[in-house]
Amino acid sequence: MTKLENISMIKEANVYFDGKVVSRTIYLEDGSRQTLGVMQAGEYTFDTNEAEIMEMMSGDLEVKLPGESEFKTLNTPESFNVPANSSFDLRVKTVTDYCCSYIVA
């Protein structure tokens, strides 16, 4: 989906890692929540309380998911799932555009 219709957005940005990762929270018409953001080059560890679907829309990066011992190269656009109450590592090599969808249990 490249266009989101009928959304509500929180104006305040979510800023992480000294401004190298910035996103905005949106709510879809059905009440589900997503964040749309951009990551600068760098290495990041993200913790999550909720299960997520991370959709990397552009960029050059690698991911190491919970339970994995090695990084995997992503071929954007590509997505991956992150379980609730876990963390994952990213090696972002170029500016990366992403969408995170939160999965309600």
Automatic annotation (TrEMBL):
EC number: 2.4.2.1, 2.4.2.2
Pfam families: Ppnp (PF06865)
Keywords in alphabetical order: Glycosyltransferase, Transferase
GO molecular function: purine-nucleoside phosphorylase activity; pyrimidine-nucleoside phosphorylase activity
Catalytic reaction equation(s): a purine D-ribonucleoside + phosphate = a purine nucleobase + alpha-D-ribose 1-phosphate; cytidine + phosphate = cytosine + alpha-D-ribose 1-phosphate; uridine + phosphate = alpha-D-ribose 1-phosphate + uracil; xanthosine + phosphate = alpha-D-ribose 1-phosphate + xanthine
Entries under Gene3D superfamilies matching the protein: Jelly Rolls
EC top class named in words: transferase
A cellular component annotation (GO) from this entry: cytosol
InterPro entries: Ppnp, RmlC-like_jellyroll, RmlC_Cupin_sf
Family named by the database record: Belongs to the nucleoside phosphorylase PpnP family.
HAMAP family in the record: Nucleos_phosphorylase_PpnP
Record-linked PANTHER family: PYRIMIDINE/PURINE NUCLEOSIDE PHOSPHORYLASE (PTHR36540), PYRIMIDINE_PURINE NUCLEOSIDE PHOSPHORYLASE (PTHR36540:SF1)
Function according to Swiss-Prot or TrEMBL: Catalyzes the phosphorolysis of diverse nucleosides, yielding D-ribose 1-phosphate and the respective free bases. Can use uridine, adenosine, guanosine, cytidine, thymidine, inosine and xanthosine as substrates. Also catalyzes the reverse reactions.
UniProt name for this protein: Pyrimidine/purine nucleoside phosphorylase
